[in-house]
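Renewal narrative, Specific Aim 1. Our central claim is that a sequence can be written position by position from structural information alone. The example that follows is taken directly from our test logs and has not been curated for this report. It begins with the structure tokens describing the chain, in the order in which they were read.
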């Protein structure tokens, strides 16, 4: 791709009238690029168009498969980060929630500790959505 862009740039300069020296350099450069391409195709036994097309398709399929794996891994990493946050919040607010229960679900206690209790409930809801409904450990993640 880099070679193609530079080729287009050189052709644009030629059309802008850059002179005979530049034209000679561009011809030599283009010949070298073509020679490199032919060497690659010969070394990799890709002189037949069908072979080249098959190799390109194989590489494209491999790229698509790897891209899917990367997307899946990134999605899982996001899920793990989210669960890790919930685990930390749950463990930090567990004592507050226990005290809230012991206080008989007092409105006054709730008003004093609303933020902590909401974090605890959000974490608990996230754990309830898990398949095994069990709180995972950070090490397990």
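The sequence written for that structure reads:
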């Amino acid at each position: 791709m880099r070679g193609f862009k530079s080729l287009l740039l050189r052709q644009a300069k030629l059309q802008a009238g850059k002179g005979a020296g530049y034209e000679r350099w561009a011809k030599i450069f283009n010949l070298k690029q073509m020679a490199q391409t032919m060497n690659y195709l010969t070394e990799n036994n890709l002189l037949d168009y069908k072979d080249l097309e098959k190799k390109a398709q194989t590489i494209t399929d491999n790229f698509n498969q790897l891209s899917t794996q990367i997307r899946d891994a990134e999605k899982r990493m996001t899920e793990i980060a989210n669960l890790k946050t919930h685990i930390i919040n749950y463990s930090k607010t567990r004592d507050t929630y226990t005290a809230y229960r012991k206080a008989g679900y007092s409105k006054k206690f709730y008003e004093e500790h609303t933020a902590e209790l909401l974090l605890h409930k959000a974490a608990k809801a996230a754990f309830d959505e898990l398949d095994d409904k069990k709180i995972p450990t950070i090490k397990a993640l």
